Amino acid sequence: MKARLERYLTGLWYTRTRRSPPIALRALVPLYRGLSSRRWRQPDARPPCPVVVVGNITAGGSGKTPVVAALARALAEAGRAPAIISRGYGGSAARSPQPVTSSSDPGQVGDEPVLLARRAGCPVWVCRDRRAALSAALGGGADVVLADDGLQHPRLPRSFEICVVDGQRGLGNGLLLPAGPLRQPAERLDSVDLVLRKQSGAGQANGPGLPFEVRPGRPYRLADEGAAGPIPPEAEFDAVCAIGNPHSFFALLEALGYRIRERAFPDHHVFSADELRRLPGPLLVTEKDAVKLERLERLPETWVLPIEAELPAEATRAVLDHVREFPLP
Question: How many CB atoms lie within 10 A of CB 196?
């Protein structure tokens, strides 16, 4: 049911024919605005260290998690001590801050934080209260904090805001939820410090923000990164993903020449071994989904496609210059 609803809304929001949303959805927009607008204001408090929020203003995926990982590595290479904070969406994390490691259970802390713990090379904290997560990160020795999501959370003080936009889907029909995909009005882009536009193919030169590429790495077998490709060229895969924009994963695989059967699940879906064993296989999955699948038993042969964000030098330089404005503790 959830998957069908997501497909319907996505088709409605991002259709090229620009058909008008049903009147029932349009009638709910003022209600959404009234309930959510208090979360649109930016906090006045200045944080004790650089706090860089990386988020989006659309429902669904935009590529922010690989951006967070890339920025964390760039900050570490520049001699800083970054940490990442997250709400841990999709997990059952407690109300008190919880550290995330590469072996943490995504059912408790969320799939994206576990992936970040593996790829960003820095401490990761989750908590429903992002201010508490920030305090935990600072107590752990961080001198700069990256918030994975948080543009709509005014209780979290921040010093720099980045909004990531999907270059393929853009802002859709430009309407607020539920008639459109926007969690905040499009004018919110004018108030952030940096807009990044994810590119995933040719013909996407237009749109707001600095373009960046998301590049695939070498596929590897699930739970065995030492067994990297090549994959047999005759293989046809069940491409399984539970991400905000499954079409972006399928389009990437097709651009790379893979033959696939598309198997989209709702974002942050909790997989069972039984539903995957019913697929003919082999499976080809995202790293975000792999952190959940590796805990299941007797799956079909499963391959994982890693991706990394390749940020423009201008974007990385802007963040590093901002961080240097704060004195080291």
Answer: 26
